[in-house]
Amino acid sequence: MKKKSLLSVTLASVLGFGGLFAYQSDAFASKLSNLQDQQKDVQNKQSNIHSNIKQKENKIDEIKGKQNNLESELETLDVNIADTDEKIQEKQQQIDVAKREIEKLKSEINALKKRIKERNELLDKRARTMQINGGGSVNYLDVILGADSIADLLDRVSAVTTLVNADKQIIDEQKRDQAELEKKQADVTKKLNNLQEMQQKLQAMKAELNQQKSRKNVILKELGKQKKKLEHDKMSLEEENAILSAQKSAIEKAIQLEKDRIAEEQRAAAEAAAAQKQQSSYSTNGSGNSGNSSNSVNSVSSGGGKSSGTPAVSSGTFTRPAQGYVSSEFGRRSFDADGFHSGIDIAKGGTVPIVAAGDGVVTRSYFSSSYGNCIFITHSVNGKIYTTVYAHMSSRTIGENATVRKGQVIGYMGSTGQAYGQHLHFEFYIGPWTASHSNAVNPRNYINF
After folding, report:
1. pTM of the predicted model as reported, rounded to 2 decimal places
2. pLDDT tens digits, residue range 187-218?
3. 3-state DSSP call for residue 425?
4. DSSP conformation class of 149
5. Residues 6 or more apart from 436 whose CB is under 8 A from it?
6. Residue whose C-alpha is closest to residue 318's, from 449, 172, 420
7. Helical spans, DSSP H, in 133-149
C-alpha cells in the first residue's frame, strides 16, 4: 500500500511538472511568436519606406530634369535679350544720327526760308513797281516803244530781257529749293518714324522676353520648392527607416533573449522535475522545492540612491520620466500645426534629469531637426513591444544599442529642435515607433503623472 502510494505521488509530481513545463513552453512560444510578428511588421514598414524613398528619388530626378530644361531655356532667353538690347542700341544710334540730320536740315531750311523770303520781298517790290507804272508786260512794252533810236531800243530790249530772266530765275530757284527741302525733310521724317517704330517693336520684344523669363523663374522657384519638400520628405523617410532599422535590431535582440530564456526555463523545469522525481523516491509525501522563476521581461527597480532632481521610481513596468508639471496633454489641440499632440509635455526650470521610463534597449540616440536631442527606447514586456520617445533634451548621456534600466538617467531637459521653452516631449507607443503616430497612446494609460 505504501509502495503504491509512493508511485502515485511520484507519477503525480512528474505529470504536474510536465504540465507546468508544457504551460511555460506554450507561454514563451506565444511571446516569441508575438515578437516575430512585430519583427515582420517592422520589415514590411521598412519595405514600404524603401519604396517611398525610391519614388521620392524618381520625382526629384524628374524635377531636376525639368529644372535643367528651364535653365537651358533661360540661358537662351538671356542671349536673346542681350541680342535685342544690342539691336536697340544700334537702332538708337541710327535714330540719333537721323535726329542730327534733321537738326542740320532745319538749319538749312531756315537759311532757305530766309533767302526765299528775301526773294519774295524783291519780287513783291518789283510787282508793286509794275503795278504803280501800269502793271505787267504793258510797262515792259512802253519801255521798249519809248526808245529814241535803234540803239536805245536794243538797250531797252536787253534790259527788259534781263529783268524778266532774273525774275524767272528767282522763281525757279525758289521752287527748286522748296521742293528739295520738302523732300529731304519728308525722307528724314519717314526714316525717323521707321526707326522709332522698329525701336518700339524691339522694346516690346524685350518686354515679352523678360515676361517669359519672369514666368520661367516662377516655375523654377516652384520646382525648387517641390524639390526641397521631396528632399525633406525623403530625409524624413530615411530618418524613419533608420529608426525602424534600430527597432528591428532591438526586436531581434529581444527575440534572442526570449529564445535563451525559453531554453533556460526548459532546462530549469527539467532539472526541477528530475530533482522532484529523485526526492519523491525517498519521501512518501512528495514534498520538494521546485523554484519559482520569473517570466517578466522588465524587473522593478527600487527608487533608492537617486540623485537630486530625478523622479521617484514607481512600481510596475513603467515610471515617470522627469519631474515637473504637465504643460500639454496628449490628444487634439487647436494651436498645434497638425492639430494633434502625440505625447505629453513635462516642463520644469533648471537642470532637470530625464530617466528611462522602463527597462529596454536604446534604439536611437541622435539629433533630429524636429525632435532636437532625442532618444528612442524599445521595451519588451511579456513578448510585447513598447516604444518610448524623449525629445527636446539639452543633452543625451546614453548611446544607441545600450541597455537601460527603469529610472536610469539618459539625458537632461532642454528646448532643442522645434520647441519653445524648456520641456520634455514624451511619447508612448504600443509596438514600434511610426512616423504617422497612429499607434501612439496616452502615456497616462501606463504611467501615473
Report:
1. 0.47
2. 778 878 877 887 888 788 778 778 877 876 77
3. strand
4. S
5. none
6. 449
7. 136-145
